[in-house]
Amino acid sequence: MNNPILHSDIQEFIIQNTSADLTKLALQKNPFPEMDWISILNQIEARTKAKDKLPTWFSAQNIIYPSKVSVEQTSSEKTAAYKTNLISGKTLIDLTGGFGVDDYYFSKKFESITHCEINEDLSEIVKHNFQQLQVENCTFHSGDSIHLLEESNQKYDWIYIDPSRRNDAKGKVFMLKDCLPNVPELLDFYFEKADSILIKTAPLLDISAGLSELKNVKNIHIIALENEVKELLFEIHKNYLGEITIKTANLLKDKTETFDFVLGEILYPSYGLPLKYIYEPNSAIMKSGGFDEISTIFQINKLHKHSHLYTSENLIDFPGRRFEVQKVISYNKNEMKNELVNQQANITTRNFPETVENIRKKWKIKNGGNLYCFFTTDVKDNKIVLICSKII
């Protein structure tokens, strides 16, 4: 690729100034008059963003980065690597390839990857970067992926698509029908080209809203990274009409918390007052809505139908945070004054009428420390505070 940004002196400058103060750097004189200064600064900023999110790219030589926004919007390596465990086959076409992080990891699982990207410059950047990363089983198509599919007779094992959530007419959107391309409208056409499709949607998309727009959904994958939901994936298969399984994963530094359940099963969760231990589900489970499933599968009590906190007398392994109860108090002036006024504590509210901010202000509770307080409602509809210590 004949791009002046790859000149060795410029590359060395970018590497040396990664994580530098860009505001100060921007005021300096451009040491490379033959190259646009803004472009160099953009490379530094994007490479800085990639340090933790894309360590493979960060560590490689002669990588070209797109805009900072593209780096922010792309999958992280951790979520991309996890996705390779979800699907398999010989051929995959990515209809919205972007910076290619997902395709880099899919290339380790599939014999052949086709990367489609409507932005010609970005397509060239990814092609160049894959050469630096020694990916040899990926072909690149610059332009509208629909045209490629229309003009080709090839059938793929999988279609992967991450529709753009920026609509020229509506701004930032979440419903699939408002994204580009319009997957619900094109679904039958896509099924002519592949029997299996994996659709990445906005993490904020309501699961029931996604199901109302799609058909033949077999699995819904919810992926969180360090307890923050990053990806919501709908896995659909041609003519599939069976039960839908929700599969959650919370990727942590030292482990992955998983929890799966069948959507729509009639369950009978148990309820009870706080016991010795309290459990708070991770964010992927909270997104899934599998609150009755948690009680049923782990055989632990819910504190209240809408509190989404769980309790048991004996400590269990749990996909989320675990706490030991030190004290349970009623939420009233006397109890609060005796236990928490002017104290330091981490506060969480679950099914409670006041916000964390109001509680802190009202009772003069400082943030932090080793105390964890859950302001919630119990099974008898009483407002209570669980004063706990966190189990590491």
UniProtKB/TrEMBL annotation:
Keywords: Methyltransferase, Transferase. It is an enzyme of class 2 (transferase). Residues 277-319 form the PG-1098 ferredoxin-like domain. It comes from the Bacteria. Its EC number is 2.1.1.-. Residues 320-390 form the THUMP-like domain. One of its GO terms (biological process) is methylation. GO terms for molecular function: methyltransferase activity. InterPro entries: PG_1098_Fer, SAM-dependent_MTases_sf, Thump-like. Pfam families: PG_1098_Fer, Thump_like. The keyword Membrane does not apply. This is Class I SAM-dependent methyltransferase. It comes from Flavobacterium quisquiliarum.
